[in-house]
Write a structure and sequence with these properties.
single chain; about 575 residues; alpha+beta; Tumour Suppressor Smad4; Phosphatase 2c, domain 1; elongated; hydrolase; EC 3.1.3.16; protein phosphatase; PPM-type-like_dom_sf; FHA_dom
Amino acid sequence: MAMILQGSIVGVLLLLLMLLLILLLILLACKPWRFFSSLSSPSRALKVGDLERPLVLDDANAHGQSNESTRSNDLEGACGQNEGLLHSPRMHDLVYKQRLPSASLQLNEGDSVVLNSDPIEDLSVGQTIRFLSLTERLAEVQTHVRQEDQNPNLKNDLLQDLAPKAIADQRSCLSLEVISGPSCGLRCSVQPTSASRLPLTLGRVSSDLLLKDSEVSGKHAMINWNADKNKWELVDMGSLNGTFLNSQLISHPDSGSRHRGDPVELSSGDIITLGTTSNVHVHVTSKSECQTPFGIGIASDPMAFRRGGKKLAMEDVCYYQWPLPGIPQFGVFGICDGHGGVAAAKSASKMLPEKVASILSDSLIRERVLSQCDASDVLRVAFYQTEANMNNYYEGCAATVLLVWADSNENLFAQCANVGDSACFMNVDGKQIKMTEDHRVSSYSERLRLNETGVPLRDGETRLYGLNLARMLGDKFLKQQEPRFSSEPYISEAIHINQESGAFALLASDGFWDVISLKKAAQLVTQAKERYFEEGGNISEKVANFLLSEAKTLRTKDNTSILFLEFDRKFRISCKVDS
């Protein structure tokens, strides 16, 4: 009897244990607690006024984990049109924002909305989501502006951080001009905002820049705008004879494969060579450069050692900016002639206008230049800062900069600074005024300076460490070895330009001056102006190309670049930019 009772108790216990186990499994399967967790979590509740605010991470390191396409879509709806123009650096940390369709919600002020309870995968433990209001973003922009006022050197960096890409796109107009070959004189311009015209094609058949040259392929190359880098890029489209940028091949290494080459960034002053004879000059300008108070002409050719021979590597860079960004009455025109490569010339041609603009952004300095009609200090400091910021140890360049400005009465003035052997002269009231100094070791004035350093030159010595120049930008290694090398610029007197007297300025690299004297150049300019006056159009461009052809006829054996400015009022033209 006792054994029967004990067996019944064990059976009941086993039955209860099985029931408890079944109940536990049912609870695990149904998860009834999930109906209470979203109601008890205050961090998921948002008020109606907060729906249109972006969610921003405090941890700046998280922005690399966010998806780029999501980020751009969020930015479109996160703020109004005016707010979108204030591109705060903190917006790079945007990770997540859920937008709810207003038509499907009937909400009153003070109501709450519960977002989906799924966790945000981009968040890490310890990171906090916070709201970035318009007021906070405006305060950040004002802080950046105050910092810029205190330190003018921050100007360019802040412009890049605060200005949206749309503004940068509108300020970068690409202009192409064929400067040699069968289609010489052909021009084409395009802006990044002209999406229907991009990419811009160069070729012999159905191209935007149509070149009637048998050595050019039907679709030879194309140029497109890279919005991520804010740069124009050139791509060879698998041409037979190759595409060269500043005499450097950019085509696919296997020319027979007809594969496209890699994109290469373009800069103002670059020379694109298609085949062997068609050279295209690149000029990148601001859209604000709609009118200049004088004519501008640019011509350039790498030249060759012998007629019909292989072209030399192009190491010259021509550039100009009129007006300087944010400084409407000032402009810069220059030529950088590189040696050992083109890198130093490109660096200097980019930095010099930036440094001049940064210095003149100070209203007190600008007013002093206008009142005293003298920009010597501006040019001197710009050269010092450029030299200090260049990292070219084994490449250097000669540099000539002509600063032109207009006062409140529209009187024009010009002042020049240079190192090296690129030269500039002006013709004012029929008189030729040399605006530069020759800094070759063989020149009389430079030999005097070198002898005054305490280590005089030997008789017949015309080079230092293999260079015929004693002053240049860059070449940091040589300057460490030889203290007599210098980057101190020569600065001319400021010249008042009478716009009724046929005044002009001519800047040219040493390839031109090696075969043409100053007096001869003035005669050629007068001859060209008389020849082309009746034809109309951009006479300054025709004069520049005429001078270049004369240098080629005289068989110069060095890169030759010419920048011609015609100040006579009757030659004033507008720079028409295709939209």
